[in-house]
Task: inverse folding
């Protein structure tokens, strides 16, 4: 009899936690006011929308852990420099663009420290030597933007956005 009364009191107490008038245990305010999204009105458009900030969200994670992401970006950088043009997904192309531009910048600089930095990122030692020979002449008048990302048709199997990244 005592256990039945105890179970009934637990059910009533649990159900009252989800009612509209209950208090949140963390803030002491009503749950209904805690759960409502804040809506900020935009002064330009006059309509209301949710305002979300993108602080510290610059890095494209590519759906991979950090070590796999680094290995993927290193491999894509090596292949873009080797072949001059590769076809990959649009997000990967935009992510690898930064690293390819950096390697060409190092190649233009041409000193020993730049060469060692490039060797630490690019997988092929001979490719780094050829990059450091060709980059100063090829990109002498250009101060940045050494790569171009061209969007192409979506991939057949999963409809992923595809792109071609190429050296300019």
Result:
């Amino acid at each position: 009899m005592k256990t039945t009364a105890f179970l009934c009191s637990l059910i009533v107490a649990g159900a009252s936690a989800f009612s509209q008038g209950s208090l949140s245990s963390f803030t002491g305010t009503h749950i209904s006011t805690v759960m409502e999204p804040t809506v900020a009105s935009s002064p330009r458009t006059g309509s209301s929308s949710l305002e979300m900030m993108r602080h510290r969200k610059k890095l494209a994670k590519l759906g991979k852990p950090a070590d796999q992401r680094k290995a993927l970006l290193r491999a894509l950088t090596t292949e873009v420099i080797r072949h001059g043009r590769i076809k990959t997904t649009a997000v990967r192309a935009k992510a690898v663009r930064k690293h390819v531009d950096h390697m060409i910048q190092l190649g233009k600089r041409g000193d020993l420290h730049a060469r060692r930095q490039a060797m630490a990122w690019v997988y092929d030692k001979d490719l780094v030597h050829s990059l450091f020979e060709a980059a100063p002449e090829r990109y002498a008048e250009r101060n940045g933007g050494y790569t171009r990302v061209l969007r192409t048709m979506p991939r057949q199997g999963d409809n992923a956005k595809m792109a071609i990244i190429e050296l300019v």
